[in-house]
Design brief:
single chain, alpha/beta, Rossmann fold, Helicase, Ruva Protein, domain 3, 3 domains, five-stranded parallel β-sheet, 14 helices, about 5% strand
Length: about 325
């Protein structure tokens, strides 16, 4: 009987070894495909590009200084969410990250009930645990509210009081595109950082790096077209690049492919519309375009600004005809 059990044990051990042996089918399984936007998201603060002010503040925080409540605002795709996520990973490490960080994004409700339940409950939790690597863990938690400008005024007002009560153990990071939609009591309690649209050079470096790692063939004209249609939004540029790579198999991605994927209006068409006005009206229209661009940067509604610009263009065409 003992010999039988030993034999069975040996067989079981052998089967286990065969299952766990390196080079078996379990390890050879292909990894699940990850969107390139997530795959190449910055993993640490040092990898954040073109946002020197906020990077300097976060580096000081990681070195041991306290972290204030933060308000990140600016155009989409400039690294707002990536920056605070990278900083949180460096502050807490992988073992404490899930316990110390609460992220609420666009898929969550933004009413006052969310502030009363999810935010308040998480903010009241005690700060416990330590990092396994021996580094000191900050004595606070981080609540990230992405697209905070979509929150109702009542929810923002309730959040203001929560920020005051839980200031000893919780830090808030509000992320939005338009700071004008955040109530003044919240903005006054946060350190504000404006994220600038990425320069063409920064976007070109990132896109070429991704092309090299993914074995994608893009010429200079295609890269320039990606930069042009993305308008400073690196996330949009990377998404278009991945779609084009899937469509063409990663070979010979042309400008026409990018235009078809993005649905962008060619710049020469816009130039033609502007040139259709006579010289005096053209100068006036150019001024209006600059004013509209400034309003958008300051946080105005895109739809209303587009209507205003279209109305001016219609007026100019009527006068010139």
């Amino acid at each position: 009987m003992q010999a039988f059990l030993k034999g069975a044990g040996a067989i079981g051990t052998k089967a286990t070894r065969e299952k766990t042996a390196p080079g078996t089918s379990g390890e050879n399984k292909k990894q699940k495909p990850i969107p390139w936007v997530e795959k190449y998201r910055p993993k640490c603060v040092a990898e954040i590009a073109f946002q020197e002010e906020v990077v300097a503040v976060l580096k000081k925080t990681i070195e041991g200084a306290d972290l204030p409540n933060l308000l990140f605002y600016g155009p989409p795709g400039t690294g707002k969410t990536s920056t605070i996520l990278a900083a949180a990973r460096e502050l807490f490490g992988p073992e404490l990250y899930r316990k110390r960080v609460l992220e609420l994004n666009a898929s969550d409700e933004r009413g006052i009930q969310v502030v009363r339940e999810k935010v308040k409950t998480f903010a009241k939790l005690a700060v416990a645990g330590s990092r396994l690597d021996g580094k000191p863990a900050p004595p606070f938690k981080i609540i990230i509210l992405d697209e905070a400008d979509s929150m109702t005024n009542a929810a923002q007002a309730a959040l203001r009081r929560t920020m005051e009560r839980e200031s000893k153990t919780t830090r808030f990071c509000l992320i939005c595109n338009y700071i004008s939609r955040i109530i003044e009591p919240l903005t006054s309690r946060c350190s504000k950082f404006r994220f600038k649209p990425l320069t063409d050079r920064i976007q070109e470096e990132r896109l070429r790096d991704i092309c090299a790692k993914e074995n994608v063939q893009c010429n200079n004209e295609t890269i320039n077209m990606l930069i042009d249609v993305s308008e400073g939004d690196l996330r949009k540029a990377i998404t278009y690049l991945q779609c084009a790579a899937r469509l063409t198999g990663g070979k010979d991605i042309t400008e026409q492919v990018i235009v078809e994927i993005s649905g962008a209006v060619p710049s020469d068409l816009i130039d033609g519309l502007l040139a259709a006005c006579h010289s005096s009206s053209f100068e006036k229209l150019e001024i209006v375009v600059k004013e509209v661009d400034k309003c958008l940067v300051d946080g105005a509604d895109e739809y209303l600004q587009m209507i205003a610009l279209s109305a001016v263009m219609m007026q100019q065409f009527t006068q010139s005809s």
